[in-house]
Structure formats: C-alpha cells, structure tokens
Amino acid sequence: MDRFHEKPNGFVGEVNINVTDLARSIDFYTNVIGLNILNQSERQAVLTADGQTALVTLEQPHSVLPKQGRTAGLYHFAILLPERKDLAVFLRHLLQTGQRFGAADHYVSEAIYIDDPDGNGIEIYRDRPSSEWTWNDGFVDMATVQLDGDSLLAESDEEFTGLPGGTIIGHIHLHVSNISEAENFYIKGLGFQVVSHYPQAIFTSTGGYHHHIALNTWQGVGAPRPAQNSVGLNWYTLVFPSEEAREEAVARLKGIGAAVTDYVTEDPSGNQIHLIV
Asked: pTM of the full predicted structure?
C-alpha cells in the first residue's frame, strides 16, 4: 500500500458518529463491517481493526434524533483495506449475508458502499497502486464506472474473519453548504490541495493522494447544519506530521477567520475537526 496516510502527509485518522441504538450499531459494525470493540461504555463504543488504533467511535446521545435530510454533514467515511484480496473477501461476505450495498470502480480505487442502520454512509475500498493513476495538470483522473465483481471475487476465496489489522480510515466525504467557502477553509486554512473536480464537488488531499477529504453541495447550496444530537458526524480527526505543521495550520485557520480552541475547529458548514499530531 502506498504511504499516503503517514508522515509527511496530513490525513484523516478517526471518525466519531451518532447512532440511535448503540447495541444495534455495535452488532452491525462488528458482524457486518468487521471491526472490533476497543472499549465500550453505556453510550459509546470505540472500534478498531488492529486492536490498538481507534478508527470509528459510535455515540448514542441522550435525546438522539434520527438522520435528517438536506443538511450539511457526513456523506460517507471511507475505510481503506490494505490489499485487493481483502476487498474480495469483504465482498463475498456481503453477498453471503445478504446485505444491500453499492459498488463502483473509480479508476484510482475499487469501492463498496453500504449504509449503517441509521443511514450513515460507509465506503470500504482498496486503492490501485499510485503508479497506475493518471494525472493531468495536477488533477487525478477519477470516475464512477461499474465494478468488475467477478474479477474481484476471483482474487481470494478466504473466509471473512473481520477487517485486517492494516485497515485505516482512507478519507472522508462531507456535505457542505458552499463549495467556495469550503475550499477557502480546507485549502487556504488547512493546507490541502484540490486534486479533482466533479459536478458540485471537489476532492482534496496532501502528498499527491487521490483524496483525503471530499466536499460536495449535493444536499443543496446553503444546506443547514444538522441539529445537535442528530444521527451523523460529531467530529473527525486530522492527523498532522508534526507539532510545527499543526501550529502552521492553526495560524492559517486564524488568518482566514476560523476559530480554533484547544486544537478543535469546524469548517464553515459546521463539520467539526480535531487537529492532532
């Protein structure tokens, strides 16, 4: 696997989401997705693939509200598997368990899409080697075409025993209310680069990745923030390669008028980000 999720790059480390029924969600994320419980309390479960690193934290707030439509917030978070055979094993598992899912080939990656019981979007994918990606004038060639499921399944006939230890959060894709405001925040503030355009969407990254953070207005320009305590994203972490890099980002964010308190900020659409090293 190419090294786009380690120094000197910035990348998404963990996502924290609200759910309406913690027990139901734990069952889904462990038995369907294949993560393991790192630790658990009455209203929270921290999930891991390697037994050490938190990838997804589930929260069931008091007075939790169901997922709202036409708001800013989470479109999906994306779980990156180490190898193509891992995605093959996962695909066969979904077919055997009868789960509903979508699938696509994006040129740079092969992806499976599934919603959790509350409608939080999840992508599980594998990257093609970056040597096979096509770049033109600083933009990577991505599309959405049909996944060759037969070719993928032929990659492995292993039984599914959960996601492999090398599994990480590959990227996050967010609904925002205004693309130009979001671009100002993520590019001028956080220091990402735009690497692809799509209708009403941009894809941004560091270090030449196809995208660490994608942003779209598919819920409508001016989409409002979701209500507090509603199903969806609470926050995600952005991992910086050094304390110096984090401080530079904080200075840039303050320079464009964004508030940063205890290394927590939020984009103009209310998506909260924890800036960590």
From this structure: 0.98
